[in-house]
Hints:
It is a single chain. The protein has a single domain (4-265), classed as Up-down Bundle (Ferritin). The longest helix is centred in the first third of the chain and has 33 residues, at 60-92. The chain has a two-stranded antiparallel sheet with strand order 1-2. It has 13 helices and two strands, in the order H-H-H-H-H-H-H-H-H-H-E-E-H-H-H. The termini are far apart. By secondary structure, the protein is mostly helical.
Amino acid sequence: xxxxxxxxxxxxxxxxxxxxxxxxxxxxxxxxxxxxxxxxxxxxxxxxxxxxxxxxxxxxxxxxxxxxxxxxxxxxxxxxxxxxxxxxxxxxxxxxxxxxxxxxxxxxxxxxxxxxxxxxxxxxxxxxxxxxxxxxxxxxxxxxxxxxxxxxxxxxxxxxxxxxxxxxxxxxxxxxxxxxxxxxxxxxxxxxxxxxxxxxxxxxxxxxxxxxxxxxxxxxxxxxxxxxxxxxxxxxxxxxxxxxxxxxxxxxxxxxxxxxxxxxxxxxx
Length: 269
């Protein structure tokens, strides 16, 4: 079974909207993810997974191969935990999300829950215990009040989604040791990008970022967009041909793991 089937399965709305209870649905996700992730691991990693835990800590080969991959997945899991909890909490808050917008956030919430389940199952299949879900403070120490103000809820949602898009891209090199995980991560990346574009439009902004400007975002979110004003790509000056706005918007920049973790850390108690 190829790991791509996980994303195909989880992208099917019927997987979430059948007659099964929520608990049964999540159990099905976990079971499916575990089976598919184990079956999809390449031969080299299959051998690696069979090495006892103690041996892994003393093997230079094992550490050099597994650490960047699993560290990248742990970072992604933390970001997905953040988004998953955020949307579930927002949807559960009476009167916060207007009825007209609940369909959008209900669907986004399902996606984030699916991403969490996938990442946990994949880490487990790779012989690494998934990082436990942190305790979150969505006010970031009082900087925001997203659970009492819908416009702030949208603002923080955009910041989370834009962080996820750049973070997934930034970790591509660290998951290249497993082509199936790389492909799945890129698929999640594109979904996060669609989330970000949708939320940005719900805030009456353009669906893309120009010159590190997320669109009427508060200064507290500047770290999410720092570096997005690059107009030089592989020696080609996109600004000279297309103008600085279009030139920068045509290429999305990565976010380092350290920067992504720092942004997420603002919302972790």
